[in-house]
Amino acid sequence: MIIDGYAPSQMIEDLRKYQAELEIQNKALRYSQQEAEGASERFATLFSNVPLALMVVDEGGLVLASNAMALRLFQPLENDPPLNFLLPFVGPEHTDEVAVAFSSARQEGTSEVHEVQFLSGTQGTFTGDLHIARIENPSDDLAHFICAVIDQGPLLTQRHALLESAAVLRQRNEDLLLSENRMAAIINSSLDAILCIDDKQLITVFNPAATTLFECPAEQAFGARLGQFLPDVEKALSEGNVPAQAMLGEFTAITLGGKQIYVEISVSLERRLRTRTPFRADDPNAIAMRGQPGMQGSITTIFARDLTSKKLAEAQRIALETQLRESQKMQAMGTMAGGIAHDFNNILSAILGNVDLAKQDTPAGSSALVSLVEIEKAGRRARDLVRQILTFSRNEPPKRVPIQLAEVIHETQRLVRVAIPPGVDFKLVVAEGCPLVLADATQVEQALLNLCTNAILALGHNKGSVTIELGTTTLSLPFNDRIGVPPGRYVTLRVRDTGSGMSQQTIERIFEPFFTTRQVGQGTGLGLAVVHGIMQTHQGGIDVQSAPNEGSVFTLYFPATGAAPVEALEPEPVTEVEGRGRHVMYVDDDQALVFLVNRVLTRKGFKVTVFTDPLEAEAALRSQPEIYDLLVTDYNMPGYSGLDLLRDAKAIRADLPVAVASGYVTPEIEQRALQEGASALIYKPNDVNELCETVQRLINHPDAQP
């Protein structure tokens, strides 16, 4: 049967197929339903057990679902308010921020708010991050959101601790940088040279003071060995017996140019994890090497202080001390010479006076007259010796006049030639055109004689030569400072010999009084001391150059002068002394001198009263002051000096002429005697005729200036 052209059999077949398809679809639907139910169960399980606070919230803030973690955070106690709405559990300072986050999640799908303050029940709070994700909900117009709250309490504490640690570390780094900058400033501004070396003794730090001291740029010093500049210090450090902090003392350093200098060294040793190498910007490995751990190393800091100025000052101090000691020796010698001169002058005065009287009493053809003349010569030489001793003991300047030293040399060489042994070659080299000098010819002659005598003695019995040289020179620093004279033009008087010479130890002592290397009987040791005193009084200097077996050269430096020479004065005629009974009181503590003066003045017609005790003389003058025409008194007398007697005599009789005699007359003595009223000063020893002339002059002209 066919219905509308569709056979029933075909219809049945189609229905079977459709039924099969429906069964298949039904089976798939049941499977999908099972899967959906399984997924829902898994979601519910995950939602409930995930260790995060999860909530499903609609856009009105209604909490549709919440897991156990959310309830534990927001409703820790049963009597706490239920978690129905989320916003009441948000702190007031974050409410608006959370509302904006929900609105943003509705538009964008997701949103986050960090460190939100939430309420935990009625008593507590906690801080968490809120993550919001929109859930598709086509069956409802209200949007649903899945909210996750992550408690940041433990993490926040760690975060704050890390922030504090970071702040502390940052402050420490700033302090370290400041300390390094400060240390770099100190090193760069230090007046001492500062060098740092590693355990291989390679230089890693070279400050500006080191650059100046060692005359080497810092770039060239980096990486160089310490021994290039401080070889002795490198050796001491290599031996390993230097403590961590030590003052090593004085060392010799070497500059880049090879010049030797003196430095004072102190060291400081520092142990560190890795030896630090010099940083160079052009080294690609320099930055990579910084901060990397390495084997144990050490950094040694060396402080070098320049001692050049100190050494120069020390040498100058030693030179000044040497000059001071020499000056003190000369002063002590002068004091001693003053004491010796008093007694010795009295002896010489007695000898010379008695010789003169003996010559007057001896017939012209007598053989004794020859002996008396020789005695007189010896006495005069002794008198000259005393004057030599007093040359450097008197404080008054010598009587210097412009003279030509060539004339003095020619006069002296005649005396020297007499004493020269046959094997000695004596030479005289005088330069022409030498300027004049302000000098005492007698003192210069005596100094030259002493030098020539020493030169002859240095030759001994050997052959050799002695040469006197006269020339000119100009002295400047530092040589003029070494011999103690100002810079300028000088006339040089040089005595050169080829004798035995002297060692440095002997040269340092040759100007000491009574120091001599000669055997007994060959010298007193006064010669060079006298020469030294003569040159001091002439404002000149003396230099000595000598070595054992190489001879000696003594050079005298006299300041040149442009003054004109002084013309010699004609000697005054000698007047005949006639005492005519004038009464003279003579006072001296030396018995021999009193005996001599009594005889001399009595022979010249004077009436003489002599005393060896000044107190007895003062008593005699007080008892009969008008009988005396003149008082002559010695200056140096024990217990009661000549000035005391002069003062008392003027008090007794103011118009009585008084003369004071002394063998050691200084400007101070002369000034004091004149202030007390002395009419004249008599220098001992003097000639008999000179004494008589002075006595007669004072008697005839008592008001004349001395």
TrEMBL record:
Gene3D superfamilies: 1.10.287.130, 3.40.50.2300, Histidine kinase-like ATPase, C-terminal domain, PAS domain. CDD domains: HisKA (cd00082), PAS (cd00130), REC (cd00156). Residues 583-699 form the Response regulatory domain. Its EC number is 2.7.13.3. InterPro entries: CheY-like_superfamily (IPR011006), HATPase_C_sf (IPR036890), HATPase_dom (IPR003594), His_kinase_dom (IPR005467), HisK_dim/P_dom (IPR003661), HisK_dim/P_sf (IPR036097), PAS (IPR000014), PAS-like_dom_sf (IPR035965). It is an enzyme of class 2 (transferase). One of its GO terms (molecular function) is ATP binding. It comes from Rhodoferax mekongensis. This is histidine kinase. The keyword Nucleotide-binding applies. Keywords: ATP-binding, Kinase, Nucleotide-binding, Phosphoprotein, Transferase, Two-component regulatory system. It comes from the Bacteria. It catalyses: ATP + protein L-histidine = ADP + protein N-phospho-L-histidine.
